[in-house]
């Protein structure tokens, strides 16, 4: 292998096929199981999109009702998982809390399952596990924010759908329909995006025939990074640094002079704009109007216009979702856990797809270390057999 064969960052490498979603940077489109994500965001509750990602089709009213019934039955945190979350220091990042909670849920669910040979589970078991994780993640995220604020756990409400209940468990009130709708749209937009870093991580873990919880736990670790999921949180830090729209130009002069990456801009796949941004920007606009915060829109527009004109690099989904989650009342550190609550649907769809047609994911590397050398003073054991004389064993 030559160094020119290396695709650092796996740029441009097609690692496998998937039927879960299609990202087309040429047409700036994103399809979930064939449906444009914008259409799904405009018409569907998040639960129906989760069903679509897992099953390949949108649910009938009966199928949606059945999924909602199961989701409602698994919303509450158990005392054990709550106790595990409480072990995580309050000043740790909440992604550590979410990762820990999912890991504990997995260990409890798989307790007594015996050998690792049984870990991967059947398709039916993994769908049931996916629904349970999807159902409980809002409680994990909401409780995390509340305990950092010194507030108590709020029990889920059976009369509310997923998005409204999520906001209820976080804030103890159900906001207006326009606010619930904006939040629902954000959940749909974040749900799936082909072989991004966290999804690929989940597929790598699934490909070893490890269990779904381990794959999701690993994906959460990948999502935490600021080049991936952590960017929505980083966008808010940028907004706070800039402070006001009139400071954008001077702030950007300084940031670019220091070769800083401007969070919320750029994308590995989309080079001419992220297909999800217009829908999320429209949701942000409804929140700006609802909460009467034109200053947020002014800063958003000013930074976008200035950065795009200077660098030709466009916003990604994290750019509008960061300020939207801020307006909704989520703490900045909670933004990436919100991404987990959504993306768990895509991850689990990919884990099931991987295991249905599995090949261990194990790329090669080009060695760039020292040439072969030997430990000083080492005397070879003359009784040892020279493997070069036994080619059939050396090959194994
Ligand atoms: C997402 C990201 C990692 C994609 O990276 P990539 O495909 O590897 O693109 P590159 O890093 O090769 O970028 C190409 C050029 O654009 C620049 N660039 C890309 N995104 C940039 C950003 N957000 N701010 C400043 N410059 C950026 C790079 O510095 C590079 O410049 P160079 O050719 O002079 O070195 C990158 O755009 C980024 O770090 N964005 C900020 C984090 C973010 O918002 N992540 C969420 C992604 S959904």
SSE diagram, text form:
Elements: E1 21-24, E2 29-32, E3 35-36, H1 37-43, H2 46-55, H3 61-73, H4 79-87, H5 94-109, H6 123-148, H7 162-171, H8 177-190, H9 197-207, H10 212-223, H11 231-242, H12 248-257, H13 277-291, H14 294-311, H15 318-328, H16 335-356, H17 391-395
Antiparallel strand pairs: 1-2, 2-3
Bound molecules: coenzyme A (COA).
Characterization of this structure:
- The protein is mainly alpha-helical and 396 residues long.
- It folds into two domains: 21-224 and 333-356, Citrate Synthase, domain 1 (Orthogonal Bundle); 231-325, Cytochrome P450-Terp, domain 2 (Cytochrome p450-Terp, domain 2, Orthogonal Bundle).
- The chain has 17 helices and three strands.
- The protein has a three-stranded antiparallel β-sheet.
- The two termini are 20 Å apart.
- The model is unreliable at 391-396 (pLDDT under 50).
- The protein binds coenzyme A.
Record keyword descriptors for this entry.
396 residues, mainly alpha, Citrate Synthase, domain 1, 17 helices, 3 strands, disordered C terminus, binds coenzyme A
Q: How far apart are the first and last residues' alpha carbons, in Å? A: 20 Å
Bound molecules: coenzyme A
Give the helix proportion (percent range): 55-70%
Strand order of the largest sheet: 1-2-3
Based on the coordinates given, report the CATH architecture of the largest domain. Answer: Orthogonal Bundle
What is the total domain count? 2
CATH H-level superfamily title of the largest domain? Citrate Synthase, domain 1
Please name the CATH topology of the largest domain: Citrate Synthase, domain 1
* Main sheet specs: 3 strands, antiparallel
By helix and strand content, what is the structural category? mainly alpha
Number of strands: 3
User: Runs with pLDDT <50, length 5+?
Assistant: 391-396
| Tally of contiguous helical segments | 17
The CATH class of the largest domain: Mainly Alpha
The average pLDDT is 94
Radius of gyration: 23 Å
> What order do the SSEs take from the amino end to the carboxyl end, as H and E?
EEEHHHHHHHHHHHHHHHHH
Fraction in beta strands: under 5%
Global geometry: globular
């Amino acid at each position: 292998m030559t160094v020119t064969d290396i695709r650092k960052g796996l740029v441009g490498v097609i690692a496998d096929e998937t039927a879960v979603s299609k990202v087309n940077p040429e047409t700036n489109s994103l399809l979930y199981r064939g449906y444009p994500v914008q259409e799904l965001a405009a018409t569907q509750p998040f639960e129906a999109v989760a069903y679509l990602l897992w099953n390949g089709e949108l649910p009938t009213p009966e199928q949606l009702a059945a999924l909602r019934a199961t989701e409602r039955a698994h919303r509450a945190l158990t005392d054990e998982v709550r106790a595990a979350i409480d072990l995580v220091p309050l000043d740790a990042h909440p992604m550590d809390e979410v990762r820990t909670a999912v890991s504990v849920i997995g260990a409890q669910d798989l307790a007594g399952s015996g050998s690792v040979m049984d870990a991967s589970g059947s398709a039916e078991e993994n769908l049931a596990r996916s629904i349970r994780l999807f159902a409980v993640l809002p409680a994990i995220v909401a409780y995390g924010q509340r305990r950092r604020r010194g507030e108590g756990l709020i029990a889920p409400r059976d009369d509310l759908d997923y998005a409204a209940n999520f906001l209820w468990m976080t804030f103890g009130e159900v906001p207006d329909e326009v606010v619930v709708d904006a939040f629902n749209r954000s959940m749909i937009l974040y749900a799936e995006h082909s072989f991004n870093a966290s999804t690929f991580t989940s597929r790598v873990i699934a490909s070893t025939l490890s269990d779904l919880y381990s794959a999701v736990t690993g994906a959460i670790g990948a999502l935490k990074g600021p080049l991936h999921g952590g960017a929505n949180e980083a966008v808010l830090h940028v907004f706070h640094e800039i402070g006001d729209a009139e400071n954008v130009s001077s702030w950007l002069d300084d940031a670019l002079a220091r070769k800083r990456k401007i969070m919320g801009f750029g994308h590995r796949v989309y080079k001419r704009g992220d297909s999800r941004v217009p829908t999320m920007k429209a949701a942000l606009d409804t929140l700006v109007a609802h909460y009467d915060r034109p200053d947020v829109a002014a800063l958003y527009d000013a930074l976008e216009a200035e950065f795009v004109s200077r660098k030709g690099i466009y916003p990604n989904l994290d750019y509008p979702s960061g300020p939207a989650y801020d307006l909704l009342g989520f703490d900045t550190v909670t933004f990436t856990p919100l991404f987990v609550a959504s993306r768990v649907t895509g991850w689990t769809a990919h884990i099931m797809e991987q295991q249905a047609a599995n090949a261990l994911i194990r790329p090669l590397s080009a060695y760039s270390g020292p040439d072969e050398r030997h430990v000083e003073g080492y005397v070879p054991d003359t009784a040892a057999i020279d493997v070069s004389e036994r080619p059939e064993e050396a090959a194994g």
